[in-house]
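== Sequence and structure of one protein ==
=== Format: two labelled lines per protein ===
==== Data for this protein ====
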Amino acid sequence: MENLVLVDGHNMLFRIFYGMQRPVFHEDGRDMRCPIGFASSIMKLVKDFDTSKLLVVFDSITSTQKRLEFFPDYKQNRPDYSQLSEEENPFTRLPDIYKTLEALNIAYLEAHGYEADDYIASIAKTYQDRYNIVIVSTDSDFNQLVCDQVQIFKPRGKKSQLITIDKVVETLGIMPEQVIEFKALVGDTADNIPGIKGIGPKRAAEILSYGSIEQIVNGQTDIPNKYLIKVKEHYEVLNRNKVLITMIHDVPFDLNEEMFETHFDSDFKGWDVMKLI
């Protein structure tokens, strides 16, 4: 099956904005490093994964609304970018990034009412029987989606990794279907989700080796008493965390497969964006 590449747009934006330290100025004074970086990165993905099928998904101002209503502290540890200057704010680059994607005939969408993660999870579920899905992001939440048909590409230059089932097991000591409960136990500092005090990755993997949180709480495992007590004491917090961490798989979206098709000239270089927008 052909690969379908799904790109976490804001994740790519942040990696380019903070990874390319020096601005690249257009003759009109605009800093073009993010449009150039986007074009170059996407063309490399199309080449590396030997596909013409790609979609970029961005968050919107309403994306975190549902999780914030459920847990007001969700992602509240992040900077208020509206208080930063235009030069310091990566989001001011989005209009030129959108223009770049449109000029190159690369499909993108904004996630309204749900997070980009939820859209990507829903699109992956819908199309994983027709394509091999490659999700491009350094966000470890996507590990919960890994299966035979879904892999995660974490771009980090020479340290880039393709996350498969075997890689999740090797790295975390758990199966991908246990990632949600694993992160519920250890927490997620990036999203301001506190875990259970005293439980780190190794202990979380050990706890889940006995069974699921529900099986443990219901006395269906032979887990040591010290862990049983810990899980029971924090059962409500664990369930809250699971809701926050679990990606939604049934987000309504309006797409057709023709939109995935990229049409840019194979001779195009990232720097050529300067002439387009």
